[in-house]
Amino acid sequence: MAKNVVSPDKKTTWKKTLHYIGKYKFMALLSLLLAAVTVALTLYIPILTGDAVDLMIDVGLVDLAGILKIVKKIGVAVILTALAQWVMNTCNNYICYHVVQDVRKDAFAKIEILPLSYLDAHAAGDVVSRVIADVDTLADGLLMGFTQLFTGVLTIGGTLVFMLIYNIPITLVVVCITPLSFLVAKFIATRTHDMFLEQSKTRGEQTALIEEMVGSQKIVRTFSREQAVKDQFGEINERLQKCSLKAIFFSSLTNPCTRFVNSIVYAGVGIFGAFFAVGGGITVGRLSCFLSYANQYTKPFNEISGVITELQNAFACAARVFALIDQEPQTPEDADAAVLEQAKGRVELEDVCFSYVPDRKLIENLNLKVRPGQRVAIVGPTGCGKTTVINLLMRFYDVDRGSISVDGTDIRHLTRGSLRTNYGMVLQETWLRGGSILDNIRMGRPEATEEEAVAAAKAAHAHSFIKRLPQGYHTVITEDGGSLSQGQKQLLCIARVMLCLPPMLILDEATSSIDTRTEMKIQNAFAKMMEGRTSFIVAHRLSTIREADIILVMKDGNIIEQGDHESLLARNGFYANLYNSQFAG
User: Fold this and answer.
1) Residue 573 in 3-state DSSP?
2) Within this chain, do residues 420 and 305 fall inside the same structural domain, yes or no?
3) 3-state secondary structure of 375
4) Which of 8, 18, 297, 413 is buried most deeply by CB count within 10 Å?
């Protein structure tokens, strides 16, 4: 059984994010270089502005020619800055959305190999929320980080260097007040991460409920649960509103707090600079340059504080996505796993023990030998382990102890794909995909011709209702089957198996939604299909399994009776009681 992986901490999440970004080192370095160019040009413009101010010393002492040259330089600097920013943003978008693509690809690939125990234990809506909503939030955080974090850090460093060159005392005033901004930002950021994580979890819970209710509207309305569902949604929505409001409120404190500190920095530069200008220690042009730098120096703190807030949200969501990606996959196949080409159909279960929950036993010491071509029916009360046996045969779950073999080879030493290809499976729960009727029938054999698909549909007695559809076999349906009845959907699933005709069959209540008359016709088709094929039939309607070669009667995970229909009736045991209860009188 797979263990549930706890969401990684911030440090681990950061490392994993850097791992994904590392695939695009060239673009990241180019973005960093362009950020440096942008900052350098942005810091050069105040110098030019200060020089222009110094050329306007007094009335009649204005150097227009010199000012014009400076204006031209400023124009060139502005154009180059805009171009560098455009290319930098393009690089950032490229990195960000390729990282998102890679994360989603890995998350979806992991879903494909996750053990069913994980998917059974987690709401589908929560998994969807991780792959869609949480990754989108990660994208927003990364984009802000690349766009503003690089530029902001370089701007802070660049302005410090320029200010130190021009006037060290005034620069020290700026440096002494700056730590206040860091302290405020850190204090708020460390308290918002958990709030954003709670917000993300609650949003996943809400998505799961919405998906469940949309897919189960008929059941909800049948049992008049509309108000109860609305109340449940309202409770989750209210929790989401509270935790979102709390997270956004505390995170929004960062900007005004850092702006307050930045205003103190600007005021300090203005006051000290004025004293130096009066004493002749600095020109008016240099003072204006210094004030501009003070603005440019403090502005990134506001942006970085906003980025940190966004990154807290992004990393909280990323932690949920990485928890999914890091989830322990199903037991990997052996490196030398054999490929089951064309099974003969000899199946053996030896001392099989299995339970979904370790402390709740289900199947114990199950033994069974099935010869090629035999029809094996499995009957028993609800919860006795019938469908579990099917899950073990298909290796959707691995046995806890014992072994299951096909043609003498333990199925754990076979590739899962080749094992399942040799089984044809029709379940009580139908599964269709969005696409045409023809695509759904050909799912197991995409290369099959339309004529072969039509022949399979006729054998499954689905041809007549398919021809009545607007576009016949080319009618497009949704994944829930659209307007098709449950019985019609089940007929399509039967046609799908009849087209593949694998050497082994599993029929788990395959005709539960079909009317009696059609069921009789399909039973005849099944009888022909099962000739020479090992078949496992799970049924509650015992009339459908009279012709089975072996009937296994299960109770509490054990086979308590075994034999054909007549011998079990003659034994007058548990099977006879089940049979007579259905046909009393």
Assistant:
1) coil
2) no
3) strand
4) 297
Structure tokens, 438:
């023809």
pLDDT tens-digit map of 379-438: 888 777 788 888 888 888 888 889 999 988 899 888 888 888 888 888 777 788 888 889
Cα dihedral angle (115, 120, 123, 126), rounded to 10 degrees? Answer: -10
Q: Contact at 8 Å (CB) between 504 and 345? A: yes
In sequence order, the β-bridge partners of residue 561 are 553
Angle at 368 between CA 366 and CA 372, to 5 degrees: 155
pLDDT mean over 530-542: 81
How far, in Å, CA of 226 to CA of 217, rounded?
9
User: Which pair of tokens denotes residue 437?
Assistant: 């009727």
- One domain, residues 301 and 397: no
126 plus 232 within the same structural domain: yes
- Does residue 190 lie in a domain region? yes
Per DSSP bridges, beta strands 423-426 and 558-563 are unpaired
* HEC readout, 490-537: HHHHHHHHHHHCCCEEEEECCCCCCCHHHHHHHHHHHHHHHCCCEEEE
What's the CATH number where 207 sits?
A: 1.20.1560.10
CB distance 539 to 377 below 8 Å:
yes
* Domain assignment of residue 333, yes or no: no
Q: 321-354, pLDDT tens digit by residue?
A: 888 888 888 878 878 888 888 888 899 989 888 8
Residues 501 and 363 in one domain: yes
Pair 297, 367 in one domain: no
342 falls within a domain: no
Q: What is the spatial distance between Cα 574 and Cα 555, in angstroms, rounded to a whole number?
A: 9
Q: Which domain holds residue 56?
A: 10-325
Whether 307 is in a domain gets the answer: yes
Q: Report the distance separating Cα 525 and Cα 237, nearest Å.
A: 52
CA-closest candidate to residue 261, choices 231, 298, 288, 305: 298
Cα distance between residue 487 and residue 461, in whole Å: 11
- Indicate the residue among 266, 290, 325 that finishes a domain: 325
| Domain count for the chain | 2
The structure tokens listed for 12 are: 């681990």
Instruction: In whole angstroms, give the CA distance from residue 162 to residue 582.
Output: 93
* Nearest-angstrom CA–CA distance, 98 and 104: 10
Distance CA 397, CA 234 (A): 37
Please give the sequence-ordered ranges of beta strands (E in DSSP) within 260-370, or none if there are none.
Answer: 347-354, 363-370
For residues 359 and 299, membership in a common domain is answered with no
312/355 same-domain check: no
DSSP state of 421: H
Claim to verify: residue 378 and residue 293 sit in the same structural domain = no
CB contact at 8 A, 560 and 408 = no
We report the CATH number of the domain holding residue 508 as 3.40.50.300
What gap in Å lies between CA 143 and CA 99, rounded to an integer? Answer: 11
DSSP string across 359-423: TB--EEEEEEEE-TT-EEEEE-STTSSHHHHHHHHTTSS--SEEEEEETTEEGGGB-HHHHHHTE
Residue 370: exposure state from Cβ atoms within 10 A (0-12, 13-18, ≥19) = buried
